[in-house]
Amino acid sequence: MQPTDLADPQPNPDSGKPPASSSSPASSPSPCPEPAAPSSEKPSAADEPATDEPAKPEPEVTPEADPEVAEKEAAPEAVEAEAVAPVTADAGDDTKTPGRVRRFLDKPWVSRGLTVFAAVVVLGALLYPNVLRRLTLGSFARIPIEAAVLILVLVLLPRRPRIAVGSIAGVALGWLLIQKSLDMGWFKTLARPFDVVLDWELFDDTYSFIRDSYGQLGAYAAAGGVVFGGLAAIALMVWAILRVADVMARHRRRAALTATGIASVWMLTLALGVQLVPGVPVAARTTATYAWDRAWQAKNGIANEAAFAGEVSQDPFGDTPPDQLLSALKGKDVVFAFVESYGRNAVESPEFVEGTGTVLAEGDAKLKQAGFGARSGWLTSPTFGGNSWLAHSTLLSGLWINNQSRYRNLTASDRLTVTSGFKKAGWDTVSVMPGATRAWPEGKFYGYNRVWDSRNLGYQGPKFSWAQMPDQYTLKKFTELEYAKPGRDNLFVEIPLISSHTPWAPIPSFFPDWNQVGDGSIYREIADMGEQKADVWASTESVRTEYGRSIQYTLTTLIDWVQKYGNDDLVLVYLGDHQPSSVVSGDNASHDVPITLVAKDPKVLEKIDSWGWADGLKPQATTPVWQMNQFRDKFLTAYGPGEH
Prior knowledge:
Elements: H1 67-74, H2 76-84, H3 100-105, H4 108-127, H5 137-140, E1 143-144, H6 145-156, H7 159-190, H8 202-214, H9 216-250, H10 252-272, E2 275-277, E3 280-281, E4 283-284, H11 286-313, E5 333-339, H12 344-348, H13 350-369, E6 373-380, H14 388-397, H15 404-411, H16 418-424, E7 428-433, H17 442-446, E8 450-453, H18 471-483, E9 491-497, H19 523-529, H20 533-536, H21 540-565, E10 570-576, H22 582-585, E11 592-599, H23 602-606, E12 614-615, E13 625-627, H24 631-638
Parallel strand pairs: 1-4, 5-9, 5-10, 6-13, 7-8, 7-9
Antiparallel strand pairs: 2-3, 6-11, 6-12, 10-11
Helix pairs in contact: 1-2, 4-9, 6-10, 7-9, 8-9, 11-15, 13-21, 18-21
């Protein structure tokens, strides 16, 4: 059967007449069509039955008698065109004239341009880095071996398998593009890559942080950008690979030679160690290596989660009798204060040394004058730039909690924490959580009798970006509600101080007269007149300056609180939860944070002489560095009756 487009046109329904005899002059057609010849199947005149009536002549067809004939007579060229016209939509054909967009895309120069663009997209995705500082032209001036492999695979496949494999490859490459982009954000804030198994839960906290810092509209915009951007990346990669594959299928020989050439040049540059940019080899296997590393990371993450259950159950202090827990601190009020983003850089970095160093030096002198002594050391935090609760749980549980899965499994266990140890030994345990805006079920795991948060601390002032209230208000309210209450039991308290939380704008002012703080209304004018986020984050220098000011504010507030309100039985442990994000600390900063123990009773400080901590509020460069999860056991051992 022949195609029905132009190869086998339908005959003209009016052209069923036999062709004119050869004797008819072709150059002088009759003005009217000849009458149709009688069919050979009709009976002849001799066979016709005889009648008495004479035969009636056939009526002559004239233009006046047949309008259709008249129309064809007037336009004989239309008849000829109709005879060779293809089947139209009226005759049952679904062929339609291409629209403007289709005609435009089918233009040779547009089609070639789209093909080149698709090839550039695929090449760019294969060379796309996962660290922001590597996003340079030098990273793309390379030869990806994956391109040669992809070309050979697609060229050798028939059409349908080629479409299937190309689509799968597009989805995979699109996903790797998304994960590399997530890595960039994670490296910039948390100094580690995105964990495809364990980090999905952090999107909820990220959304909450954006909402609290930039408003609900900003949170919606960020969420929409992530979702639609991810879908667009995958769709673009699928389209690009399929378009390139279609072109290669039409030029198989050239495509195969191209793949061979890419592989040959890649092997040559690899053998010679060619580099156009120092430290960046021209021969690249970025995508294959990255995919393998992430698959291995996922496998290790699953195995790590399974092994954690055994770590939780192995607790040397789990069965310690109450009378042997923390016996050297009997009669003391113990306060653990986490200073948000108080990292080693805040103490040692040249741009912060003057400001932070002055606050610590002056504060050390004030506390000594008030009869307090101090010892300071370093701890290595399990997190960086955020996720403060991982540091809190690591310090209090004695386990390395560096991801959300471990945190979730820990809080579902009955592991002894520093808090539950104090509760078991007879202390009244309290948590003051100024940044919490909803119920905190983990408080039961830690062992707190009461939790004060932003909903019941009575603050009537404005938010300071993410921070629900300034640290000075938090400490003043804690003093009124718990610390200065007459006839109370000895307290164990955990207080996160949050005024130094990113984005560090605006920053509250410190009031030497604590009575000025009141219900917080005094802060309204300060918040309106302070530096705003948009202005601060316009330059890295401004961000670092405001970060330094926020640390100085919190340390000034905490030291002044000890001097004014601290009694003879106060034991204060304050530390950083993690370093600030890399916009402040740089790309290669450590995870170390300062930790300081302050007490008026010299016997409390003597118990930790063996730790090797520096005297005063500032640790030294030579001071020992511990993993943060080591602190619980060292603390319980130092202030208990014996070794464990």
